[in-house]
Each structure stands twice: as C-alpha cells, then as structure tokens.
Amino acid sequence: MQKPNERLKNQTAIVTGSSTGIGAAVALALGRDGANVVVNYHSSEEEAQEVADQINKESLCGEAIIVQCDVSKEEEVQAMFKKTIEKFGTVDILVANSGLQKDAALHEMTLKDWQTVIDVNLTGQFLCAREAIREFMRRGMREDVSKALGKIIHMSSVHQVIPWAGHANYAASKGALKMLMESICQEYAPLKIRCNSIAPGAIKTDINKDAWETESALRELYKVIPYKRIGVPEDVGDTAAWLASDESDYINGTTLFVDGGMTCYPGFTTNG
C-alpha cells in the first residue's frame, strides 16, 4: 500500500464496481492520494458504503460518495455521471473496473450468458468511457490540477492476451477491450486525454478463492506465476493511483500487466 500523498488532490474519480475486491482497493488508493471518489456499486450497497466510510474517515483523503449503477445500462451510466458532476463539479478520472464471469464450455454456453458478459465487460466500459470523454471536453483543461484533460483506466485482464478455455466470453471481452482502449488513445490523445489499461493476473479475492485457499491449490497456481506469489488487490490499487497521476503523464495507450510474470510464458521455464 502506498503512503498517503496529495498527487490527486482537487480531482474527482469514478471507480465502477468498487464495493469489493480490486475495485475497492482502487477506490481507497485514489482516495488516499487526495481524490474525491465515487464508489459505484451494482447491488452491494452496504459494502460500498463501508468503502466510502473508510475514505471519509481518513483526514488526508478526499471525499467519497456511493452511487448505484448498472454499467451496461446507458441511462444509468449517464445518471451516475450527472450525480457526480452535481456533487463535485466535474470528473477527472474514470477507472472502469466493473466486470463479471459466466463460465461454460463454448458448446454449452447460452446466448444470455455470452451477452451478459459482453454487455458488462465491454459495452459498460464503452458507455463509461464515452461519458467521461464528454465531460472532459465540456470542462476543458485545468493545468493547475493535472497535465491531462482527463484520465481513463480500463480494468482488463491477462486474458486479453492469454486464451482461456471454458471462459470464451470473458476472454473475448478483454481482448476487445484492449482495442477499445488503444482506439480511444489514438483518437483523443491529441486533446490531452490519457487512456490506459491495467491487466491483473491472479489476485487474491473471493471470486477466485478456490485457486488460493489451500496449500495444494497455491502450488498449482504458482506454476503459472514466475514470481511465486499471488497478487493482492492493493497491488492493482497502487498501480491505478500512479497511472492516474501526473507521474505517469507520458504513458498513453498502454496496458500495464500486474501479474507476477504470468504473461511471460512460464511453461517454458524449464525449456518447455
């Protein structure tokens, strides 16, 4: 966990899907760097409020509020941005973190499960990024606050490059997200908008508890992680806070892999 500082002071961030896990760690990290934070949730209001309360009780943090929103619904995304702007005046940072899995072998996957994953993991990222860009352009530059007009961080996955049998909908959504992020960068970098992705590998959250809760499970997991430890949500949160700051101002159109080396073909460690 990074030490509290003020590198995001006077900025406002929306973090989607931030009531638990990686999203909560991102919200807390941005808050500790001085940002005001909108803790978005889909259904976990109590957990979202706990994250906001934690930010609000720390004196060096910005202010936090919670906003319910299904990111796959255009009108709800627009309402979330409207509430944020009414409260804080603008949006400076978007961390589009919301995502889900509906796993099945491809020949058994229903159209509903395919579409649900695409709607949240890809369309939701598009809807949030579009509203963020609209607000950045409406507001204009504030050079005393940030070198960039605005910052967008998409939460991707190592599976934007690693195929994943039994999870074709999820992997497809993350592969497409890579091209969405890079296209946004190409189109809007001339306006001083930065757009990047973070691609976590194995992170210790409840969603993948089966992969780490026993010693035998961890041994199997370490076979695909050269660094031989599982990540924690704070690894991603700290990365997001840095990526949202002016310290990373020249980074644009890039995916940062937070994966302990998982994407470095660990199967070839012993010459294949």
Task: Characterise the protein shown here.
The chain is α/β, with parallel strands linked by helices and 272 residues long. It has one domain (12-203, 231-261): NAD(P)-binding Rossmann-like Domain (Rossmann fold, 3-Layer(aba) Sandwich). The chain contains seven helices and seven strands, in the order βαβαβαβαβαβααβ. The chain has helices at residues 21-32, 45-57, 74-88, 111-139, 168-188, 215-222, 233-244, and strands at 12-15, 36-41, 64-68, 93-96, 150-155, 193-200, 255-258. A seven-stranded parallel beta sheet has the order 3-2-1-4-5-6-7, sandwiched between helices. Helix 1 links the parallel strand 1 (12-15) and strand 2 (36-41). The radius of gyration is 18 Å and the shape is globular. The mean pLDDT is 95.
Topology:
Elements: E1 12-15, H1 21-32, E2 36-41, H2 45-57, E3 64-68, H3 74-88, E4 93-96, H4 111-139, E5 150-155, H5 168-188, E6 193-200, H6 215-222, H7 233-244, E7 255-258
Parallel strand pairs: 1-2, 1-4, 2-3, 4-5, 5-6, 6-7
Helix pairs in contact: 1-2, 1-7, 3-4, 4-5
